Amino acid sequence: MKEILIRLLKKFGYRLTKAPITLNGLKVEHDFLSRHNWILKYGIETIIDIGANKGQFAARFRVLFPDAWIYSFEPIPEVYDQLCKRFELDTKFQAFNLGLGKHSGEIDFFQNEFTDSSSALPMKKLHKENFPRTSNEKKIQIKIERLDEIMKSIVSSSPMLIKIDVQGFEEMVILGGKDTLIKASVVIVEVSFYELYENQVFFKTIYEHMLSLAFSYHGNYEQLVSPVDGCVLQADAIFIKENV
To answer: Partner of 144 for a Cys bridge, out of 101, 134, 140, 163, CB 3.0 to 4.6 A?
Structure first.
């Protein structure tokens, strides 16, 4: 009977999907845990979330690693406030209202109306053509620091996971954080295959940086596909430390 029902639904363009489940107060896909077995085995104790936005990544990985310390970096003041509010009851969470880069100081930052697309780099036409809702932005000043310098004041333990999602500014974060990155077991970093932001680097450059730090590429965690022609614009590339 079940197979007959499924065939009938498919015939009329419908399909059965399992309902989301709730883990640690967060609704996730029914297969969330099984899809993350690859990283659960590392027993992550410290998570560095660079480009935290409202804490989407941190919330999902808090489900996976309930006892890990999470350190999140978000430069936009009002988004930082939302991030802090989301984790106000989490005693092993700390947020920093700043960006990370190759040098310390202050820089111009392009705050997008769709805050996920905000960047230290000007947005290219291709990005706006694919995602029209990102057309409006304003320039603000933000403080940036080097990851290696910040980590001197942070108590962290291994194994460590570092996530970098800063809309084209990833290379600058890496260059300012090599001493920290080399201590990580897993790094998830956003890479681009098309120029969505001015003067950004592409996958090959990020790959070479990570290779030089003794990481190997292990595929993509997620991908951003163009709604215009279906090409892969960006991906969250997984790099794992060799011999971990």
So the answer is: 101
